[in-house]
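Lab notebook, bench 4. Continuing the backlog of folding jobs that were queued last week. Each job is logged with the same field layout so the records can be merged later without manual cleanup. Today's entry covers AKT-interacting protein-like, a 177-residue chain. Filled in by technician R.K.

JOB TYPE: sequence-to-structure
TARGET: AKT-interacting protein-like
LENGTH: 177
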Amino acid sequence: IPENYTQTGTVQYVIPENYPDGDCPRLVFDPPVFHPVINPESGELDVKRAFQKWRRNVNHIWQVLLYARKIFYKIDTKNPWNPEAAVLYEQDLDLYKHKLAESIKLCKDRLYDPPESDDPHAIRFSEWEPSVHESTRDQLLRPKVKEGKPSVQASGCALFALLTPTPPFYTETLKEK
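JOB STATUS: finished
OUTPUT FIELD FOLLOWS
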């Protein structure tokens, strides 16, 4: 995931009907990102690798998001869902980076496409428009003050911080393009 999470396109969070008492949530990258633990056909991230059994009051959705971030820092090539990505990562890092950059470019090109879902709650991205977005951004970035003391802001910025990894080789790969 390069400079920010949106550069990988959209991620669909699939919450099972028996949540939180049953299966773990699923994360699906649309379109699929070239990575050893992401299914190259469906775009699904192998979440069960980190959460073999989902446990209520122990496991939380934010942990799945942290795991999604971690996979781009610590690439696991054992038992891959995408064998080609695993082999290239181990044997031809330059080609791996190239294919990753191509998949990210495709994601970026499709970022503003409407979701392929009839779900009225699906998130739709739009290009930055200062007249629409600037005031919301300023509000999120403004420190909250309680009784004259600044406090940690736990609103959208916290989630944004979770979703903005910058692995070292991704940024340089994108600059080459």
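OBSERVATION: The first strand starts at residue 10 and ends at 14.
SIGNED: R.K.
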